[in-house]
């Protein structure tokens, strides 16, 4: 069986943050990305960036070792990743979104997560190869962006690490 390090080289996994406004959420994304062994976080638009005390508090230091890059516009990083043959998956509730458990992930893969209120922007959704969502069973229409990222990230890692 291949080591996780060997698999990571062959199956890159990125997360693209589309205008996530909360610094605490950005910090928690770094912490979750570390747990998932995400290769890089792309912070886009209004996303806060390290160094920041609020990011550090919720990241517990993960912002120091998880690789990240900033882009002014989310579509710019999507176009770059598409040129690199990365499979682009947006996490958003739409009438045509696929349940996250039904996706057959292809790597390298970039998971786009969106703004806490507006979600993933329409211009970014149009560039995605697939749009997935989490089924909701209660009164609320969505989960916190970090919680949703964690659930879907672990689902992607089932394929990535064969567990």
UniProtKB/TrEMBL annotation:
Has keyword Nucleotide-binding? no
Q: Which GO terms describe its biological process?
A: methylation; RNA processing
One term under GO cellular component: cytosol
List residues of the tRNA/rRNA methyltransferase SpoU type domain. 13-154
Q: Which UniProt keywords apply?
A: Methyltransferase, Transferase
Pfam families per UniProt: SpoU_methylase
> What residue ranges carry the coiled-coil annotation?
none
GO terms (molecular function) for this protein are:
RNA binding; RNA methyltransferase activity
- What's the name of the protein? RNA methyltransferase
Species classification: Bacteria, Candidatus Nealsoniibacteriota
């Amino acid at each position: 069986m291949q080591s996780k390090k060997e698999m990571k080289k062959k199956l890159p996994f990125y997360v693209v943050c589309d205008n996530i406004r909360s610094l605490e959420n950005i910090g928690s994304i770094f912490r979750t990305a570390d747990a998932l062994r995400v290769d890089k976080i792309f912070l886009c638009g209004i996303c806060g960036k390290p160094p920041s005390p609020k990011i550090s508090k919720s990241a517990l230091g993960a912002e120091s070792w998880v690789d990240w890059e900033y882009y002014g516009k989310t579509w710019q990083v999507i176009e770059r990743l598409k040129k690199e043959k990365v499979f682009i998956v947006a996490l958003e509730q739409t009438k045509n979104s696929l349940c996250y458990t039904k996706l057959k992930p292809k790597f390298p893969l970039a998971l786009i997560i969106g703004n806490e209120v507006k979600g993933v922007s329409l211009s970014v959704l149009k560039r995605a190869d697939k749009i997935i969502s989490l089924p909701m069973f209660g009164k609320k229409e969505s989960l916190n962006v970090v919680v949703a990222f964690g659930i879907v990230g672990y689902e992607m890692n089932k394929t990535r690490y064969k567990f």
